[in-house]
User: Fold this.
Amino acid sequence: MYKERTSHDKFHIERVTKLAVYIALKEGANVEIVKKAAELHDLIRDSNDHAAASAREARKILKEQGYSDEFVEAVAHAIEVHSFSAKREPKTLEAKILSDADKLDAIGAVGIARAFMFSGEIGRSLEETLKHFEEKLLKLKDLLYTKTAKELAKRRHKFLLKFYKEMLEELKFTKSDLHGDRGVNRDR
Ligand code: NI
Assistant:
């Protein structure tokens, strides 16, 4: 992952860690647990349940490094429940904060950029990416737990929505040119 330049590269990890630590300080959470969970949250990406796989890997690494069972479990729980698609409920403040930080990195200007990076990685079209905005990204602000994250999300969501609407307009405008069999130019 550390050589990668993708939507889930080390820069994503760095941003999520900074966001998570910032939120943890504001919310009075255990900063050490939050920081470690953020650093290790996307260890394994090539799995159909990357959160569970990353939690397992994190547990192994932290145990080897001699962390206490209590610390290891707190970190592993946060990683296990952070993913949007896994739909597992965080039981601790630290887990809620990792989930919030990861979601914040998926909205706003950075979130938009990452969505299209990811589309490039998996071969998804512009239209399909906008569908992903509808199905996931535009919903994320309502899935945040902490007050601090909700505050940070306001500006990011607003920008995301503005971009989304603008892009829909542009695509609508050019649709008939792209697909000669459809749209207003059909009968010319
Ligand atoms: Ni992540």
User: Anything to note?
Assistant: The chain has eight helices and no strands.
